[in-house]
Amino acid sequence: MPSTNRATNHARPTAPPVAPSLSPTPRRSRRNRIALVGALATSLCVTGLVTATSASAAVPVFPDNLVVFPDRDFIAVEGYQNHVGETATVKITRAGVGVVGSASSVVAEGDVAFEINHPGGVCWGAGTGVNVTPDIQPGDVASISFAGPNGNSDGGETKVQDGYVDAGSTLAGSTVTVTGHIGPDVIKDNTEQRIVEPALTDTAVGRRDVRAVPGPMTPAPKGGYSSMLEFDDAKHTFTATYIFDDPAVAKIAADATGERLLSWELTDADANRQGITIAEFGELGGPGMGGCPNGPLQSGPPGPTDVRAANVSGGVKITWTPATALPGTPAITGYRATAVATSSSNGEQVEIGRRITGQAAKGTTITGLASGETYDFEVVSVSSVGQTFPAVPAVLEVDVTPPTVSASPNGGSFAVPQQVTLAANEPNSEIYYTTDGSDPIQVDTPSAGATLFTAPFTVDGPVTVVKSVAIDPFGNVSAVSELTFLISNTPTPATPAFGDPVVGEGQITLSWTADDPSITGYAVQVYDKDGAKRSGPKETTDKTLVVDGLSEGTPYFFTVAAKNANGYGAESAKLGPLSPLGALVAKAGPDQTGVVRNTKVSLSGAGSTAGDTYQWTQLQTGTAKPIDATDPDKVTLTGATTLDASFTLPFYKHPMSNKALTFQLTVTMGGSTRKDEVLVTPKSDTVTIGTARWKTGEFRVTGTAGTVGSVITVRSAPNAAGVSTVYGTAAVTAAAPPEVGGVWTLRIRAGATLPRTNPGTVFADSNLGGTAGPTTVANG
């Protein structure tokens, strides 16, 4: 289902903030109403009226956007075409709770990179393992990051706005009113209320929705009604009022179930709405399609792991690794362990069990088992919404092998106190330790002075003897481990911080900062890409070092550590990869993004070595192959054999793409060559199709676009040969107030391009880039 027919008319009301609770309290009455699927565009790019606002710098930058539909727990990820083919991760973070939902997907080409919890998209939990559909609430933050070839990067975030319709439409004569809640942090000028009802298209309204924006009562540009949007700051409410010319049309609007509130964090200088929340009245949350995980209050908790059962004196001991509740779900309050007899009488089997309180519990012993009977053992986690299903089974095991216990650090001499961590090689083993040199075990039983290890502990000397022992679930006892820690309490210096490196020919100049006056010197360590040390550390007393003798084009990594009278401190994090230059250098310049079509693009080789020859070549993006002469994305280069070349980015025409164009600079000198590439990414206009209708003797398609003055081409879907039928073009004009943005209409009543039959589906392309469709053409 194409995104260009989706988001704007999927808006529904957001519930007010809900404090985390362990009880399965239902969300507000919005959950009891009927969902309405609209048919206007996802993209809310507008032109004309610009609202001067302030918001977080983390809001996505057009054409990228995160559109949040909190009532359906649905997110549309728009744009991000400079990350096509990369894996993106979207997270929902709640203040005081943390991440309550996440999902990963590969960024696809097109206006919508991907969607979460919507047919055709991915489920929450995809690629992240956080298998819960989050109950998205006002104040939550949706963020996106990418795992690309150059490492992780952030793509911005959208804060869910606190605004929603809280009751259906009210009709009084020719007047329809819609009321709702709007939080004090919502920017009033960044709101719009709509009623969506397709039947309005065939009335004097002439479109599928009516809209109210902040301000006085204003007639609609197409006629049929006037509207206004007012606010009561004291009550944190809004009222949208619509006065229709015809009472019958007013009743159609009042009977609609498509009330919604749009709100956004900022409007940029080009009037694009960024950081959008679409609150839809009456929509249901939870899984948006089959196979997606339940919401936080719709399923039991995950079960414990490493469940084991062993015979002990008087019964069977069952141990496990405690379970962790999924983010945003009720806390695990304990466990239920059960022994089920394998024999039955009259279709009944005996069960004997224990209820254990506390999420951190690790085991229990079941007693009262019948001699000669065999049992199956199982464990479930328990929370306020139920218990694990199915239960986690345990198999009765026999083990006579003692465990082993290890420590980190493993004893030694240290300048400062140490945090000691103990570990056993067998799951669910208990570790006991002492720090006074006494034995932690006496006749297979922990001594009175021994401490059960539950978390790292501190040894601060000057001399501390740590003895430890592990006991596995079967009662086997390890040998006693004894470690000595010598603590001088004379700390080494803190780790220096690297500054910006300077890459040169066969060398790299490093610099760093350090404020500790006790520092007497530094050591720089060089590593290769596999983490192996290239040579011994290079020592210096300065805060800069030239590392030379490096191979051209080879990636290196560097660390720095400081020393004082007590020795060297910890190494810094690795800096790199950094690759030295050679005698011959080719630089194609920085990547260029958001390039407007029909403008001149300059390619600069500034910084390259003065060579014998230069050659600019357009490559097929993503490969090392020159672009084919018949490729619709091929451009004509001027000055292709000079250091500085240029070309005019052509207007978009199907089947061109909006992906980045790749240009390679080759510098040749004395028989040697060097190459470098630069990416030029066109700016993608925002195009939508609002209506598409065909009847005998008339074909009409309408929509919006992001740029007034652009030209829209309406075409069919490509045939097997990749060729589309062009029906006609339409210029984008400014919408009449109070509407904002650009609008276009293609109307054909006669001629060779008038389809004799319904075309089925259509696409709309902007000559400035950007495509909408496929959109189904309606009859009539």
Please render the helix and strand layout as text.
Blueprint: E1 65-69, E2 74-78, E3 87-94, E4 98-106, E5 112-116, E6 141-148, E7 151-159, E8 163-165, E9 170-172, E10 175-182, E11 191-196, E12 209-212, E13 215-219, E14 225-232, E15 237-244, H1 247-254, E16 259-267, E17 273-280, E18 305-312, E19 315-321, E20 332-341, E21 351-357, E22 363-367, E23 375-383, E24 386-387, E25 392-394, E26 396-397, E27 405-408, E28 412-414, E29 418-424, E30 430-434, E31 441-442, E32 445-446, E33 451-452, E34 457-459, E35 463-471, E36 481-487, E37 497-498, E38 502-504, E39 507-513, E40 521-527, E41 538-540, E42 544-547, E43 556-564, E44 567-568, E45 575-578, E46 592-595, E47 600-604, E48 613-619, E49 644-648, E50 661-669, E51 672-682, E52 687-695, E53 698-705, E54 711-715, E55 726-731, E56 733-734, E57 742-748, E58 761-766, E59 771-776, E60 778-779
Parallel strand pairs: 1-17, 18-26, 28-36, 46-51, 52-60
Antiparallel strand pairs: 1-2, 2-5, 3-4, 3-6, 6-7, 8-10, 9-10, 10-15, 11-12, 11-16, 13-14, 14-15, 16-17, 18-19, 19-22, 20-21, 20-23, 23-24, 23-25, 27-29, 29-34, 30-33, 30-35, 31-32, 35-36, 37-39, 38-39, 39-42, 40-41, 40-43, 43-44, 43-45, 47-49, 48-50, 50-51, 52-53, 53-57, 54-55, 54-58, 56-57, ...
